[in-house]
Amino acid sequence: MGIIELDAYVLIISGVDRWSFIDGLSTNKVEQSCSTVLTDKKAKIIDVIDVVEVGENCAVVGYGPYKENVLNHFQPRILQQKVSIRDVTSLNCVYASTKPFPQKEGATVSQSYLGWIVITSQSKPLVSTLSEAEFTDYRTRNLIPYQGYEITPKVNPFNCGLEGLVHQSKGCYIGQEILTRMRSRGQMGKQLMQVSKGAEDAISVGDEFALVIRRTAV
């Protein structure tokens, strides 16, 4: 097992409408802890987030540099919903784990598209055991995209290997009509692929494999 600290933000969503609020803005069905995608009107990615149940609240964990875009996406849509949002990024550390992480006092653990994520307070940090290069190698071996690399505001979830986070029967979220039409027609555009590390169009490069986004042959 290896863990690495992520450049991540943590938002706390409180209130009786917390689950329906996140569910109505993302591609996956959000009824419990899960990974999901926030998309804009053109179905481009705003961020991939992990929603983690924390007592009577939800923690939303995403990529640090995308935090302001997420807050700008959330804030105008709070009206008439019984929710509040607190930014607790400065109080917490977030880690990715390549294998199930044991439950321990002071740590919140949830399964994620990355593997598992672990949230701790700043006063009780963990020791990272993976280097950036080792984390990249883990991702390339397991076809896992990451923000700032394969996951950017220029792509939709289908382009970067996140089809599993787009619920097939869910409707009524921003970007849903475009994604549903793409899926129903079988026209999802470019796809995330695992190739040899010598590829010229490689985005993430590991010891043996690389990740690329390419248009597939019809």
Task: Write structural notes for this entry.
It contains four helices and twelve strands, in the order E-E-H-E-E-E-H-E-E-E-E-H-H-E-E-E. The chain is α+β, with helices and mostly antiparallel strands and 218 residues long. It has one domain: Gyrase A, domain 2. The chain has a five-stranded antiparallel sheet. Strands 1-7-9-8 form a four-stranded antiparallel sheet, with no helix packed on it. The model has no long low-confidence stretch (mean pLDDT 95).
Sum this structure up briefly.
This protein has 218 residues and is an alpha+beta fold.
Largest sheet: 5 strands, antiparallel
CATH architecture: 2-Layer Sandwich
Number of strands: 12
Strand order of the largest sheet: 3-4-5-2-6
Task: Please state the CA-atom Rg, rounded to the nearest Å.
Answer: 17 Å
CATH class category name? Alpha Beta
Unreliable stretches (pLDDT < 50, length at least 5) are: none
The coarse overall form would be globular
Number of domains: 1
Give the structural class: alpha+beta
End-to-end distance, in Å? 39 Å
Order of SSEs: EEHEEEHEEEEHHEEE
CATH homologous group name: Probable tRNA modification gtpase trme, domain 1
SS element count, helices: 4
Instruction: Give the mean pLDDT.
Output: 95
| CATH fold assignment | Gyrase A, domain 2
Beta-strand portion reads 25-35%
